[in-house]
Design goal:
Pfam families: DUF6453 (PF20051). InterPro entries: DUF6453. The chain has 178 residues and is mainly β. The chain has a domain of 50 residues. The protein is 0% helix and 44% strand. The strands form four sheets. It has a four-stranded antiparallel β-sheet, with no helix packed on it. Strands 3-9-5 form a three-stranded antiparallel β-sheet, with no helix packed on it. Strands 1-2 form a two-stranded antiparallel sheet. Strand 6 and strand 7 form a beta hairpin. The protein is flat, with a radius of gyration of 20 Å. The chain starts with a strand and ends in a 43-residue tail after the last strand. The relative contact order is 0.24.
């Protein structure tokens, strides 16, 4: 039986358990626009030494159209990996099917999981062998809207931010264009 904090709104959503070993992501920065090199996007943001960094893409594919030797090319350039640049940011790397050297138009958000020793206040959940710490230095994301929506075609998001959702029709895909 896990020890920790159980949050249950009793509204049909799953309960959230904050148990030993959990760490919360801390917001670093958002990025959008054209990259800084061929199939790359340099994101400069201060990072905490020893943290684990990840990128949540909001526009992971850029479809470019251009002429090459009198042939019209439709080329998707997509994110493939993220490289940490010390404590100064990340480089988002990408590729495309034709190995064209193009400047991508991508967007996303950079987060980091802070190491355990970078704070002195916050929420601590502990037992005899492990702990969970959510630092007062972490810039956490929170949920701004929870509800059920019916989409027939398209709809605007009820609030700004990064959408998360689930749907009940296996024959339908859901997209977000930023």
């Amino acid at each position: 039986m896990p020890e920790g904090i159980l949050i249950d709104y009793n509204d049909g959503r799953p309960a959230m358990a904050i148990t030993a070993g959990l760490r919360a992501p801390s917001f670093c920065t958002s990025f959008a626009g054209y990259g800084t090199g061929a199939n790359q996007f340099q994101v400069n943001t201060p990072l905490t030494s020893g943290s684990t960094v990840f990128v949540l893409p909001t526009r992971p594919v850029d479809v470019q159209e251009f002429a090459d030797n009198q042939t019209w090319i439709v080329l998707p350039i997509y994110m493939t990996s993220v490289t940490r640049n010390g404590d100064n940011g990340v480089t988002v790397n990408g590729t495309n099917r034709g190995n064209y050297q193009r400047i991508p138009n991508w967007a996303g958000t950079v987060f980091e999981i802070l190491p355990a020793a970078t704070y002195n206040e916050g929420l601590l959940v502990s037992n005899s062998t492990d702990f969970t710490a959510i630092s007062n230095q972490a810039r956490l994301m929170t949920c701004a809207y929870v509800g059920t929506v019916t989409v027939n075609g398209s709809m605007a998001l009820p609030v700004s931010g990064i959408p998360f959702g689930k749907w009940d029709n296996n024959n339908v895909s859901v997209g977000f264009d930023g």
